[in-house]
Design goal:
The complex is a heterodimer of chains A (460) and B (162). Helix content of chain A is 56%, strand content 4%. With 460 residues, chain A is mainly α. The longest helix of chain A has 25 residues, at 296-320. Chain B is 74% helix and 0% strand. Chain B is globular and about 50 Å long. Classes of the chains: A mainly alpha (460), B mainly alpha (162).
Amino acid sequence: MQPCSREMQGINALLNPPQISLQDLHDQQQQQQSQIQSSNIHRQVQNSHFDPTSHDDFLEQMFSTIPPPSCSWSDLNPAKTPAAWDLNPRDLSDDTAPLNPDNNNNVAFQFDDSANLASKLRNHQISGSAKSAAAAAAMMLQQQLLMSRGVAGAGDSGLIPMPLSLGSADDNVDGSSSFKSPNLGAHDDSVQALFNGFAGSMHGPSQTPNQTQHFHHSQGGPVQGQNYGSPGAAMNQAPASGSAGSAPAQPRQRVRARRGQATDPHSIAERLRRERIAERMKALQELVPNANKTDKASMLDEIIDYVKFLQLQVKVLSMSRLGGAAAVAPLVADMSPEGGGDCIQAGGGNGGAQRNQTASSNDTLMVTEHQVAKLMEEDMGSAMQYLQGKGLCLMPISLATVISTATCHSRNPTNRSVLQPNGGEGPSSPSMSVLTVQSATLGNGTVDASVKDSNSVSKT
Amino acid sequence: MNPRRSISSNPASTVKSRFTNGFLQALLRINRQRITSTTAYTPREIFRGYLRVKIAADVSMASAIGSRRAWSRAILRKVRSHGRDGAQVRRMSFLAMRKRNLYGNIKCVEDAGFHQANVLRKLVPGGEAMDMCCLLGETAHYIKCLKTQVKVMGRIAEVFST
């Protein structure tokens, strides 16, 4: 049956994007699983008369008994209304009205006609509409039939959670072949496999009608893609589970040994662990900016720097609330050695707007400059104290250039002797940063600081 | 993934709102303390005040998360056992390290990120007792919460600095 395989491939082509959303659905549906399971068995056969004469009417009756969508699907597709039936717009518009509010009018289809229904479904959809939506819808209904029949007949067979996997081309063929199986009663294995796979991804027949509804939306390509994902995945998993794990699946909940690899538990556990770590690293990559590193070590470095940066931001923010430039000074002095490579630019001591910049240490010095400028407006002594606390001093720019060129490799003695006559006090610590301050407000003072672009020379 | 989403869907009880409420209450409390006590401007007093605000921020963040995460539990544990001696804390961390090594990451030294993992463990609260896999997960959640914290605190600072 050529159309079937083509439609199957068409469905599978759309499977790739929505996998994650399906996984979310998966989780959501698992919550409702227990409730739905209990209500499953108590369903009544409401629609006992199927008119097999006209295919359109038949489908109309099938669809009219499908309960309205649950909230999880409506969350996904807020723009979609459950009442839009594209397949038979003229017939179904009246029938869908009374179904919307009540979620409990779920029905099981009549089991006597299930074989007839399935064959007629297939005939109808093959001869009828050219949309692949119809094919998938037909398959959905067929599986719903099977499932409700399986539930009523076999009791609570349990919903086996199947991992959502995108099958390969082999699975395509298998899926279409299992779909083509004409006699549902005879091939119980495939039926049960279909049922298990379908139920595993659907977790309740009340979900399936929602999908059949959404299949009929001509608009919203990605929506259709989403909806195709689950039945396609279900159909792919049924043959995958049936073929005893020889296909190289990529499961999320179960680990299967691939062909040719060792199957001893140690390597499997090792592989599992590595996969989990890779997953977490990928999640972290999204959180951390500048995360385009492919190397694991550099990625870890980036993560570490970012955590340090955020912690530093919290510290600065908690400090800024205390108010007052003089209060800020010793705290900044406390914090500057913790800054590390990435420092933030705090907007003054009064908690100005925080600007998030991962800048070099130059920005820290610019912050210090602003602080010093502010302090100098109030009191020179506090400004000098602040600088001293940071291990800095004020000096004329000409001297700074001389020092930077001359004392690149030397340490304390030269610096001190140069700095003392200026009145600026050299720090007692061996590491020293020379700061030239651009201060527009500082006219005359003990230090002749010219107004030009400040260069920060830091030697550590 | 699920409980976080179901909680965040209710606007009255997102992590952000819980943290904001807790933090503002703590700030009010601290302010009342500062008014009653002498306002000292010595560096030591200022540092203590800053530390109080920072601890308040961390604790309110951890309480907003609750006991769902290992790092929030670690923060709350640290705060509750603040008065006890440091020796006990060091002993606990040593035991935690042994537990981590027992739980299966015996090959951790040969892995590529061992040294960074150690640094990360010191950064993330409660990271001592975790193997690499849990550590990365905790780090991701911790980064998210830190971002929220920074955003909220920045907003508060903006509002109060006018």
